[in-house]
Amino acid sequence: MIRSVILGSGSALPKRCVSNDELAQTVDTSDEWIRERTGITQRYIAGEGETTGTLATAAAQAAMADAGVTIEQIDLIVLATATPDNTFPATATQVQSALGGSGFAAFDVAAVCSGFLYAMGTADSMIRSGMAKRAIVIGAETFSRILDWEDRTTCVLFGDGAGALVLEAQEVAEDGPGVLATRLHAEGEHCEMLYVDGGPSTTGEVGKLRMKGREVFRHAVTNLSSVLGEVLDEAGYVPADIDWVVPHQANQRILDATAKKLGLPKEKLVVTVAQHANTSAASVPLAYDVARKDGRIKKGDLIALEAMGGGFTWGASLLRA
Ligand code: UT7
What domains appear along the chain, each with residue ranges and CATH number? Predict the structure, then answer.
């Protein structure tokens, strides 16, 4: 059977790292509150010249180097972002050009914090249907540019960054590597829980992020544990079979509560929320890259990716490394 196999991963962070203490100099908050309520200790914030596109390009270059492929071998770029460089064209096309590619399909996917799962699902479907052979799937964000820095309930939670995976169509055996199952969901009726109060067709302004944190928290734990159950069922596995969960990094308490609901030991979670904060669509591939590079994720491991965000949207993917 044909599956989408991960050949390599890469990531990129802005140069500037901002600690909780530094943030507390300008925002009415404290290192203690942020650590206790979220697990976040620092975040990276894009500076002049650093954009979603430049971070995505750097992550894609690192993923191609890790995979040992050149841009001539790529025939698809899917980029998940809610903070594109421009309203259009898609940031994916700018990344394609910056990588020296041309001609093949490149587009953005918008599903906010679950964007990377939506992008993976799309790329995997295109690979399995024969539309693409080798894809770069990217999650990249500069949420610092849509934060209300006067709203302490949101601005302390997010950071900027990018992560990327290279996927390749391979003929594999049943127990071989590749994406095994992906499930995606949306409930548009909850759009007011987490949204940006602007846009090209409404206010004509970019807008700022607004969130009812407690409501999002409650839905996140329920939705994430249930969608993880769905992909496990579809592929014929149980939680105990999982080697690593690479979750969306929104809040340490969400990660702990989701793991508890599934009966998964905390040691099986790849956690980067302390260092990266919530980087929206970038958080899953960033965490994947960290765990692959530090040797935790090994060939043959059963890996679950999951994320939940504005919309609401959520999803999970089960794969064998
Ligand atoms: O990636 C997309 C998904 N997003 C998420 O998953 C976020 C989900 N939500 C959360 O992570 C949590 O709900 C938050 C971290 C946003 C908030 O944590 P919480 O434990 O739900 O706190 P809360 O909103 O109930 O606020 C508790 C208190 C309030 O004060 P009072 O009303 O009890 O006096 C807030 O005003 O904490 C106060 N507070 C702060 N204090 C210091 C809120 N933000 C801050 C802050 N610094 N930054």
Answer: 2-171 (3.40.47.10), 178-320 (3.40.47.10)
Query: 213 CB less than 6 Å from ligand 1?
Result: yes
CB 250 within 8 A of CB 277: no
Rounded distance between C-alpha atoms, residue 227 and residue 171, angstroms: 27
Catalytic site includes residue 248: yes
Distance 142 CA to ligand 1 centre (A): 21
- C-alpha angle with apex 266: 249 to 80, nearest 5 degrees? 25
Ligand 1 proximity of 156 Cβ (cutoff 6 Å): yes
292 backbone dihedrals φ, ψ, rounded to 5°: -75, -45
pTM above 0.85, yes or no: yes
pLDDT of the chain along its 321 residues, tens only? 999 999 999 999 999 999 999 999 999 999 999 999 999 999 999 999 999 999 999 999 999 999 999 999 999 999 999 999 999 999 999 999 999 999 999 999 999 999 999 999 999 999 999 999 999 999 999 999 999 999 999 999 999 999 999 999 999 999 999 999 999 999 999 999 999 999 999 999 999 999 999 999 999 999 999 999 999 999 999 999 999 999 999 999 999 999 999 999 999 999 999 999 999 999 999 999 999 999 999 999 999 999 999 999 999 999 999
Active site residue 190: no
Pick the closest to residue 293 from 73, 79, 65, 118 (CA basis): 65
Q: Is 258 in the pocket of ligand 1 (CB under 6 A)?
A: no
278 belongs to the catalytic site: yes
Set 20, 248, 251, 276: catalytic member = 248
